[in-house]
Amino acid sequence: MSGVRVLVGTRKGAFVLTSDERRERWDVQGPEFGGWEIYHLKGSPADPDRLYASQDTGWFGQLIQRSDDGGRTWEPMGNEFRYEGVSRNHQWYDGTPHPWEFARVWHLEPSSTDPDTVYAGVEDAALFRSVDGAKTWQELPALRDHDSAPSWQPGAGGMCLHTIVVDPNNPERIFVAISAAGVFRTDDAGKTWRPVNRGLQSEGIPDSEAEVGHCVHRIAMHRSRPEVMFMQKHWDVMRSDDAGESWREISGNLPSDFGFPIEVHAHEPETIYVVPIKSDSEHFPPDGKLRVYRSRTGGNEWEALTKGLPQKDCYVNVLRDAMSIDSLDSCGVYFGTTGGQVYASADAGDTWAPIVRDLPAVMSVEVQTLP
After folding, report:
1. For 185-203, how does the pLDDT look when each residue is reduced to its tens digit (9 = 90+)?
2. What sign for the dihedral angle of Cα 161, 167, 171, 173?
3. Radius of gyration (Cα) for the chain, nearest Å?
4. Nearest to 292 by CA among 320, 321, 318, 325
5. Nearest alpha-carbon partner for 73 in 49, 39, 56, 55
6. Please, is 26 exposed, middle or buried when counting C-beta atoms within 10 Å of its C-beta (0-12, 13-18, 19+)?
7. Which SS3 state, helix, strand or coil, does residue 287 take?
8. Which of 204, 235, 234, 178 is nearest to 95 (CA)?
9. pLDDT for 202-222, tens place per residue?
10. Cα 130 to Cα 121, 186, 190, distances in angstroms
């Protein structure tokens, strides 16, 4: 019988939640690495037993861990993230020059075909790759060597490369999202890059329609249609039908178009999910009601999904990596909150129930569908 494994990274450790395909009863394992911030925890699509974790503390710094048995045991991996080949500064919040400095790994993206190949998006914004199961890391320096890189500035959470999307039909095409620079695409496995932000508009930057300088929060695609992309931006939900060459707004009737995560249904490429929050200064649900919004039309028309979610006095947030989708026949949707709850829906969002409560603040949620 197939099942699911939900990988949860929190402010104080990692948790592994498993269930069968009914997704009614859950086994909770953890905390692993108690006391460490787990920025991201993700499994390899090529090997269901291979997991990667990014952990960080102010005392001991950044560490990558790997498990080869589904999270029962872990081994520390390579911790050397050395910037290569680029000496130019980037801009700081006030526009002054600032040297590139490694702070942490925000996102890990394992290859869909090779369990030993994994990408890492880091702060300050750079892309690294390992081909030996995270033992060693090499930067793909052409991204930071882009002509626009000296103008990149940090968003409120730092200048982080927080999203990596690899085209499932063409592994040499990779999209990355950087806060606050925008989306960049390579078609040659990282040898060259170019911004793909045409159509985005952002108040507060000198040129609101500039090609670079936009605070993108998250991008997503359906593997059957990699040319169609969806974006949750710092204000605005966006869509591209040409692999990022142009974007158009699809916020429609959302109560707020500010938020962090965005995901696509496993079997319905025009069904997408977002979690609106009130504003860029008030990171909680509008009216104190926790609502996931679903569009079955690829945007513009949205419905609130509330059954089983708190609809009074709820003031949590859902971070950019804290929502995920399984690929079972009845598509499951999962998200975690800064209040420490992880919610699951086994019916594509129609009804919700908490898997666990009272965890530390959830930073990431990823799902593996198990054979």
Report:
1. 999 999 999 999 999 998 8
2. negative
3. 19
4. 318
5. 49
6. middle
7. helix
8. 204
9. 887 767 788 999 999 999 999
10. 12, 18, 13
